[in-house]
Amino acid sequence: MRRTATSAPRPQAATTPSRTQPGASSPRRRDAKDRYGSSDAAGAAFLASVRAAIDDIESSGDRRAGLILDTSFSSDGIYPGDPGMIRAAVELVRERGGVVIADEVQPGFARTGESFWGHQRHGLDPDIVTTGKPMGNGFPIAAVAARSEVLAPFAGTRPYFNTFGGNPVAIAAAQAVLDVIRDDELQSHALVTGESLRAGLRELAGTHPAIGDVRGVGLYTGVELVPDGTTRGPATGLALDVIEELRARRVLTSVCGPANNVLKLRPPLPFAASDIPQLIEALDGALTASGA
Description:
Elements: H1 39-59, E1 66-69, H2 87-95, E2 99-103, H3 118-121, E3 128-131, E4 143-146, H4 148-157, H5 168-183, H6 186-205, E5 211-216, E6 221-225, H7 236-248, E7 254-256, E8 262-265, H8 276-289
Parallel strand pairs: 1-2, 2-3
Antiparallel strand pairs: 3-4, 5-6, 6-8, 7-8
Helix pairs in contact: 1-2, 6-8, 7-8
């Protein structure tokens, strides 16, 4: 398998409240520390939040434009949820005249393993899709795809010009990424390897009570850190200490979630089963060194 590396993801923005945290895709090892206990409950809460946001916008006399969705809720703490969890909210946006924008910078390009795009996992058919640096494996290229009827008002009323848009070098890099994903079967690889990684992390949680939850899909995993096995709430300071300890052990990652207490494990797609022990050992050592 050829080794490639995807670039670090960027934070996501949304037109709905960014603190909404859809539930984990599997049962928690301990009592839930977020506000929802299942994907059904999370989907209902998200729907209520979207409805409230639309009502608030309309009551102010403004027109709603649409909903921007990172379907893995990456910056919220990585909550991919069960497939279809957010469909009702998307249907509501359409009913109220808004467009649906799928931000695929983080879940896209086969990362979830279950589908090539994050929105496909939820059975969504967005009006606009945005992509980012993973499209070029870190090479500076991104793309926007949209329905013609959505772009028509923009294209028909103002000129648009991009000096470097679609240059041959960038397109060659993007094509090479697609070739490697297809030829090396990285989508199915992400699915299988991600499940093995989370199994190892859950086993590690048995010796480190500070690991309150392990959740994710494909090669996208969140490890939520809490003060101990019985206390609800975020262990932000611990999470920041752990990422520094991991760096000392040659593992680079970051934190996410409203309280920055979720370790964001998003390795390159060629990350293999043989790499898992090294990551588990590094995290074990980082937690121990941090007093957890």
